[in-house]
Amino acid sequence: MDGKITGGCLCGAVRFECSADRPVMAGNCHCRDCQRTSGSAFITALFFPKEQVQITGDVRYYDVQAESGNTFSRGFCSTCGSNLFGRSTGFPHLIGLRAGTLDDPNRFAPSVNIYIESAPSWHVLSQDLPRFARAPVR
What we know:
Layout: E1 5-8, E2 15-18, E3 25-29, H1 32-38, E4 43-49, E5 53-56, E6 59-65, E7 71-77, E8 83-88, E9 94-98, E10 113-114
Parallel strand pairs: 3-10
Antiparallel strand pairs: 1-2, 2-5, 3-4, 4-9, 6-7, 7-8, 8-9
């Protein structure tokens, strides 16, 4: 893919740029934490090597202990509250970008559904993607 991956928050106070060609992994997470932070049935996240992502603006992080025991940090704009980033102590070399915050959200597609045991009964899951009740074991 040509060109940098760019995106940002709703108000424009936080912007990011990624020099990687493609994500290390991309997926839909249906865990209850992601549902609560998105206000929806799931989030779509794209994970890139953190050294290839540059962030400008005032980002605040909220830390929680994930089911795995790792600390998961969600980064959001301190002005408008847009949830933009995710970091895990389980994958310290990666940063997750919320697909909906990309300037071109059609640039990448998810390749997996995780935590489907928490997916709402009304949510229709893609039949084309692998599914995991929780997170796949690495």
